[in-house]
Design the sequence.
């Protein structure tokens, strides 16, 4: 049995399109509390992505010890600054303005846990540069994206109309979407090939 310990519709869609049989069980985890402790201990954005991915998988694995559990998380850093998902359209507009004309990094981590034990992990980063867009362009993109933008760190979706706001992107596409899919599939082939059987 394969479980995705995430509520992310994007990660679910990526696994589904890859033809995997899996169940989605979001982890009951206080991410902000865990994040605060990690940052206080000196963690950076990359460390945090891996920590949260592992914590999600371990939390679900304790309830389903016989299952292979995928944990994934993504963080966004602008220099030393850590950004989060916007709480409102106003927050999203402010965050896009903050990123305008600058280069930021997305860090995506994925882990495999079984019986509460971390068996494999991977951490990938991508670099993205936003162009100098106008407030009118920003608002038009937010209109096109709608509420979907509230579920995205950085207040954009590269797979949606937000792509118009970028001048350069460097890194793996799946990493940018929040799940390093190719390393994950490689790990499953090695550790649990039975989970890669093509669905009927």
Sequence:
């Amino acid at each position: 049995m394969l479980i995705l310990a995430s509520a992310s519709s994007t990660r679910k869609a990526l696994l589904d399109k890859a033809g995997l049989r899996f169940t989605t069980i979001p982890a009951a985890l206080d991410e902000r509390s865990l994040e605060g402790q990690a940052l206080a201990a000196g963690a950076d954005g990359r460390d945090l992505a891996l920590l949260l991915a592992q914590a999600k998988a371990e939390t679900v694995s304790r309830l389903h010890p016989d299952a292979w559990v995928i944990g994934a998380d993504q963080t966004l850093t602008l220099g030393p600054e850590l950004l989060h998902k916007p709480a409102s359209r106003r927050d999203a507009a402010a965050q896009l303005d903050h990123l305008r004309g600058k280069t930021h990094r997305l860090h995506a981590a994925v882990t495999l846990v079984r019986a509460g034990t971390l068996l494999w992990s991977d951490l990938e980063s991508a670099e993205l540069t936003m162009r100098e867009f106008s407030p009118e362009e920003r608002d038009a993109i937010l209109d096109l994206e709608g509420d979907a933008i509230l579920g995205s760190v950085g207040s954009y979706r590269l797979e949606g109309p937000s792509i118009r706001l970028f001048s350069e992107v460097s890194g793996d596409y799946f990493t940018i979407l929040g799940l390093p899919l190719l390393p994950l599939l490689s790990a499953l082939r090695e550790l649990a090939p039975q989970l890669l059987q093509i669905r009927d």
Observations:
- Helices lie at 9-17, 31-40, 45-63, 89-99, 135-145, 173-177, 181-191.
- The chain has one domain: 2-196.
- The mean pLDDT is 94.
